[in-house]
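Replying to the earlier thread about multi-chain prediction with a worked example.

Input:
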Amino acid sequence: MKLPIYMDNHATTRTDPRVFEAMTPYFMDVFGNAASRNHSFGWEAEEATEKARKHIADLIGATPKEIVFTSGATESNNLALKGIAEMYAERGNHVITQVTEHKAVLDTCKRLEKQGVRVTYLPVKQNGLIDLDQLRDAITDKTILISIMYANNEIGVVQPMKEIAKIAKEKGVLFHSDAVQAIGKIPVNVTSDGIDVLSLTAHKLYGPKGVGALYVRRRNPRVQITAQMDGGGHERGMRSGTLNVPGIVGLGAACDIAKQEMAQESKRLSFLRDKLKDKLFRDLDEVYINGTMEHRLPHNLNISFAYVEGESLLMGINDIAVSSGSACTSATLEPSYVLKALGAGDDLAHSSIRFGIGRFNTEDEVDYVGDKVVDVVKKLRELSPLYEMAKEGVDLSKMVWTAH
Amino acid sequence: MAYSDKVLDHYNNPRNVGSMDKNSPDVGTGMVGAPECGDVMKLQVKVDPQTGIIEDAKFKTFGCGSAIASSSLATEWLKGKTVDQALEIKNTDIVSELSLPPVKIHCSVLAEDAIKAAIGDYKKKNSVATRETVSVS
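Result:
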């Protein structure tokens, strides 16, 4: 077993060697511009991007013409939200989203608000899922778009896509989903799920960074999007810019592999995830799962180790790459807004660790991680005045703290 | 973030971890911070009533590695000082000793606060004890 162990696969994934291999000819041998229409260099590049387009479409139940290539999911989310708000401005100016979206959606919504769009941020229940009645109640005759992520990047909970789509359809509202974490991990099908616009990115499914796609429905309804980048009118006018051919080939190859292997792989990942969870629950007291286990990505585990601060835990397991919702590990010095939204209290957000098990993790690695985390949590609890007080029976919630 | 060697040393081998009887008259206890802020420090000093010298210091900290290191270092520095010398320890001394980056300065502030709270508790107990003695006689 090689150290350090990478177990932060919600942040990014290692490029699959098969994906890398598929990409390599497109740097130096087939280097043409896919938009060059009058020579073989261009034709070969275009053929490669169209093949990739088909692989992506096949993975999500779309048609190739509904795939728009972008630089990644942040761009896809920006294009979807801004492009729809602009295109449908005459129909209405209200967008509904939720508080636990990725910043690429939330900050785009904030910008839209400055431009006069009204945005409703739905809360989530303690299990991390939105309340469908609240969604229904939030819709007005001005609502043009609902944007709800497929699966959350921190706690891995999977939102009820079909039910949301049904409500959107009933009310004649478009439905966008940031599906970055779900694609290639669980079955996503824009047709049976009823999604109109969907964002995805290559680097979360063992593809390269810097390339993604936006699915834009062409039928029932035909969704129109105002381009947010001016230029050569590529991608049917929705996204100008010379296509990143090697990246697109990589995204296509990653989708192709995911389609072949997802069913098998997700079983393996959920076995490993459950093994880790069971180990932690067996050997430690006062550990809490953040978000529902019932509707969850197979490879996600987000756990709070009460009375232990997340960054100090990461420091103790420094040969394992994972993430924490602790304030000390974030750029803003605020604990995770996703965990805060679950209403469990900031103290549990500070104590949280996100494990993202991936294609290249082995069972030995998972066992090592389990042992190491247990050891370090026990050591840090010996150091923790809160653990000592809790064991003495002090009710910490009734203490008066000197907040600073 | 890269931690300094001294922070890593205190994190890996924390000095003077533990608790003393907070009801004992020669023990001063300071508890600062809050769980929802992500750090709580408990620092205790045991003072020789004759000399006013701190003979022992203990800590327990819930917080990041720099918070653990700051409080561990504080206990090292406290031992052998008089209570008044202890009050002269400044957070900036801790910052420079541990090479804390700007984002971790609040950990050193918390350690200074914990020292002041522990000494304050000892002094409070002490003066109360003195008054009682007076009233009895």
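The first strand of chain B starts at residue 27 and ends at 34.

Feel free to reuse this layout for your own posts.
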